[in-house]
Amino acid sequence: MRRTQIPLDLRALQAFVAVCETGSMTAAAKQLGVSQSAISQAVSTLERDQGMTLFDRDSRPPRANVAGRMLLELAGPLLEHAQMISAQMGDTSSAGRLPVRLGCVDSFAATVGPELIRAVSSSKRQISLWSGLTPGLSKQLHDRELDVAVCTQTTLTDPRIVEVPMFSEAFVAVVARSHLSGRASLDWRTLVKELPLIRYTARSVIGQQVERFARHLGINSPRRFEFDATDPLLSLVAARLGFAISTPLCLWQARHYLDEIAVLPLPSGRLSRRDFFLLHREGEWEDFAKEIVALTRTVIDRSIEPALARAVPQWPDDAMG
């Protein structure tokens, strides 16, 4: 039966090379700053693991035999590569340039995401941006496929995951601007009587949140139109085929429809807002997480919310907070 080879121990290999280069275990120990017994033990372990002797013990000082000379020839590049990896890891950690994998829900990635990338790209930080649904992002973070995730609803079961509140946005009723023509005002209760509700699909987190809020408000509109994305949803709203319940970020994501829509405020309450959270592992990426939270707040306050307030009639003052 063929013997299974044990992977090389790099410290033992370093000790072996030092003995070959200095000519003795005493000199090798001095070069590496360890005891002579540690060098002797390392070489013996290396020989045992590889199943062969590496020195001719009959010569004084001991010299590498054929197997030893072959190992010495192969060891140099291997140790150099290991040292290069160690040096690069040290440089990356000290400079904060370790690539970070950031996952975001789609509406955040499409609106705040570009501004975050622009701000972070001015530094030496490398960043990869993923988008997806909250359940998938949470699983990717748990499985270490992501380093940081921005989600809208969390049910954390891993105590090692830290949840940082970012901001919240109010649900608003969205209607075709032409539907308001000739009216001084329109209450959401009247809107519900006049038009059916166009929904996000129930398989999305926002679809589930909107449905709970709609039931809370007593909206019992029949299920006719459902969409995964805001674009097709707003296309039907703009065509006056119904109204929708959406959020500021979703509207900004589909902002080419802003000229055709208006919003009506909905009652405030426990179910009336969508909360965003940043998730990361405890003790990892904490400074980057704080940076993302601060940048997000700046983008919302200085760019997205003022633009929405200018573009959309009857924009609520507390839509984002």
UniProtKB/TrEMBL annotation:
Gene3D superfamilies: Periplasmic binding protein-like II, Winged helix-like DNA-binding domain superfamily/Winged helix DNA-binding domain. Coiled coil: none annotated. It comes from the Bacteria. Pfam families: HTH_1 (PF00126), LysR_substrate (PF03466). GO terms for cellular component: cytosol. GO terms for molecular function: DNA binding; DNA-binding transcription factor activity. Keywords: DNA-binding, Transcription, Transcription regulation. Residues 8-65 form the HTH lysR-type domain. PROSITE patterns: HTH_LYSR. Belongs to the LysR transcriptional regulatory family. This is DNA-binding transcriptional LysR family regulator. It comes from Paraburkholderia youngii.
